[in-house]
Design a protein that fits this description.
Blueprint lengths: L4 E5 L4 H13 L5 E5 L13 H4 L2 E4 L2 E4 H11 L6 H10 L2 H22 L6
Parallel strand pairs: 1-2
Antiparallel strand pairs: 1-3, 3-4
Helix pairs in contact: 3-4, 3-5
């Protein structure tokens, strides 16, 4: 991968936060920048609803959202140095599995944020 990637996620979501942490520390993806949307909501595209679409990936001025963003990232991970990231990579490098499972992750995110007392909206 030669082009810079920007991954923007919800830092209050423990699932998103763990994935972002693993990407940053264990993925061996040298050209990925990780940003918490709650720290810099102005970096999200205008009218982007992270609650509906999920995390996003900016790649060569193209925006991938939700399952497509996670699927692309997982397809780029070649040799993660973490067992959990290896499992995530195996599951989400399949577009079909990503599309099927991502809505469940969004529901888990909403539920967890509600339990924590954190707004699901940014």
């Amino acid at each position: 991968m030669t082009n810079k990637l920007i991954f923007i996620y919800d830092g209050e979501c423990p699932f998103c936060n763990k994935f972002a942490e693993l990407l940053e520390l264990k993925s061996n993806l040298p050209e990925i920048q990780i940003k918490d949307a709650r720290d810099k909501p102005s970096e999200l595209p205008k009218d982007y609803d992270i609650d509906i679409k999920g995390a996003l990936l900016i790649k060569e001025n193209k925006i991938l959202t939700g399952y497509e963003a996670i699927n692309f990232i997982c397809s780029q991970i070649k040799a993660p140095s973490d067992a959990l990231l290896e499992v995530i990579k195996i599951i989400f490098r399949s577009k079909k599995r990503s599309k099927l499972l991502f809505p469940i992750l969004l529901l888990a995110r909403r539920f967890t944020l509600m339990v924590k007392g954190v707004s699901i909206k940014l």
